[in-house]
Amino acid sequence: MFESAELGHTIDKKTFRNEVPKLRADLLDVQFDLVEGKAFPVVILISGVDGSGKGETINLLYSWMDPRHLSTLAFSTPTDEEGERPAMWRFWRALPPKGKIGIFAGSWYSQPITDRIQGAMRRSEMDERLDDINRFEAMLVNEGALVLKFWFHLSKDAQKRRLKALEKDPRTAWRVTKTSYERLKTYDALQQVAGHVLRVTNTAHAPWIIVEGTDDAYRSLTVGRIILESLRARLAESKRPQVPVAPPITPAIDRLNVLNSLDLTQSLAKKDFERELAKQQGRLSELARDPRFANRSLVLVFEGSDAAGKGGSIRRVAAALDARQFQIVPIAAPTEEERAQPYLWRFWRHLPRKGRTAIFDRSWYGRVLVERVEGFCSEADWLRAYAEINDFEHQMVAAGAIVVKFWLQISADEQLKRFKERQDTEFKRFKITEEDWRNRDKWDAYATAVCDMVDRTSTGLAPWTLVEANDKNFARVKVLKTLCDRLECALKSEDRLKND
Predict the structure, then answer these.
(1) Count of CB atoms within 10 A of residue 85's CB?
(2) Residue 496: pLDDT band by 50, 70, 90 thresholds?
(3) In this predicted structure, what is the pLDDT of residue 434?
(4) For 416-439, what is each residue's pLDDT tens digit?
(5) For residues 381 and 398, what is the distance between their CA atoms, to the nearest angstrom?
(6) How confident is the model at residue 51, as a pLDDT?
(7) For 315-343, how does the pLDDT look when each residue is reduced to its tens digit (9 = 90+)?
(8) How far apart are CA 396 and CA 87, in angstroms?
(9) Burial of 116 (0-12, 13-18, 19+ CB in 10 A)
(10) Contact, 396 vs 351, CB < 8 A?
(11) What angle do CA 238, 240, 244 make, to 5 degrees?
């Protein structure tokens, strides 16, 4: 994997001095086109062995390009806050917006490589993480990002010489630490692990570029030229690149589906409702204060037909929780800041830490519902979203989150009745808009989208609960009871894990 980066590549000083001025001018020009067009973000990963010139290269890019539109993100051991969320949370928060270049010094590869070298991760576990990373990078590319991954390589002898040279120079001696020499002892293990990582994640849409780091001039010109050529090629493309990731949808020929098979006549008398409401809210309050919940987080997703009663159900859930421990996240059309990022970005940043709850009033499923039906994204975009959403939710669960998803369904007649009631009631008029009426004309299209959504994203780790919501009392109790049952089951699993 690294043979071509141990051949002693060099560039003489004269050639370097002659080529740098034009390269810098060209880089600034292409960066200006990137900033002005704001068509896509650029993600640059700088990885490799110690002493191979990672820091020097980043500093050089800042001197060759406009630093106002660059950002460098350095990642080491996760902080306490980061450790209480999925492993990719901190990288999602750091993604550059469209028109900007984000340089990652240490990335989503660093921790798996370190853990594997130290024996804290089995080979099978690392391969699972690498599969997740491949899908993450495919998502970035499908969202329009240009992903450039550099691995700076040195042979073992070259690394020793490099560290000694840096140590002798007073201007660079600070870069060499005791840790640098300790890592030298694990050189062979690093090459074995890194070679495997690079092979598994060297994809057509996000390939690795291995650069020999012995000669500064060669390394600098190589990186500068690759960035320039990659940006030029990407800016010249008329269509956004797409990585195929989703199989097509096959409709049922008998038209029976998860929505039209629901019994919407189910109801609950007022007296029974008040008794059950108090009982289930009491259960939820106790479960949320259970000491075992301190090691978990709770993510609630509320989706449903317009006027199905999402807000009322959320209020009944919130009434049983400590307001200091939860956040309600209402989702509307994305802001300009959010449109400059991958569509899941705005949801990642709201994920709760352990012991906390996030309640999403509408969610990431907008991509496969309203955006699909209204044509706000392409078919390729919403088709691949199913797999990306499943990955997102499974990463939450792997980090300790309990993900509970509700779809509230009402009949078309019940919806019309509620629309008219909202229109005629002074304090409910804000709940009804022209868009709600327009959506009624697309009832069948939305029903098809919902059925596809449930079929493709109701997983064992994050299943959907379909709530028959023609009767509000019945729906609210079902939501609370389902939530309590899921919480109880998750907390019991904590006990089983401790006992094991």
Answers:
(1) 23
(2) low
(3) 79
(4) 999 988 888 777 777 777 778 888
(5) 25
(6) 85
(7) 999 999 999 999 999 999 999 999 999 99
(8) 9
(9) buried
(10) yes
(11) 135
For residues 492 and 484, give the distance between their C-alpha atoms in angstroms, rounded to a whole number: 12
What is the Cα–Cα distance from 174 to 166, expressed in whole angstroms? 8
Location of structure tokens 């490799």: 48
Distance CA 50, CA 53 (A): 8
Going along the chain from its start, the domains and CATH numbers come out as 3-236 (3.40.50.300), 270-499 (3.40.50.300)
State pLDDT tens for residues 46-58: 999 988 899 999 9
Name the residue among 237, 176, 248, 274 with its Cα closest to residue 34.
237
The neighbour count for residue 435, using CB atoms within 10 Å, is 10
Q: Which residue has the tokens 């010489």?
A: 161
Residues 6+ apart with CB under 8 A from 401: 86, 296, 297, 298, 299, 351, 352
What is the C-alpha separation between 440 and 412, in angstroms, rounded?
8
Query: Which region, left, alpha or beta, applies to residue 239 given φ > 0 means left and ψ of -120 to 50 means alpha?
Result: beta
- How far is residue 270's CA from residue 272's CA, in Å, rounded to a whole number? 6
Average the pLDDT over each of 139-153, 173-187, 480-494 and give the range with the smallest value. Answer: 173-187
Cα 352–chain centre separation:
14
Predicted pLDDT of residue 285: 97
DSSP reduced 3-state for 490? helix
pLDDT band at residue 500, thresholds of 50, 70 and 90? low
* CB of 57 closer than 8 Å to CB of 227: no
Average of pLDDT values for 472-500? 89
Strand partners, 17: none
Q: What is the DSSP letter of 95?
A: P
Burial 48-73 (b: 16+ CB within 10 A, else e): bbbbbbbebbbebbeebbeeeebebb
**Category of 248 on φ-ψ map: left (φ > 0), alpha (ψ -120 to 50) or beta:** beta
Is the sign of the CA dihedral 306, 312, 315, 316 positive or negative? negative
pLDDT at 497: 61
Residue 11 has pLDDT above 60, yes or no: yes
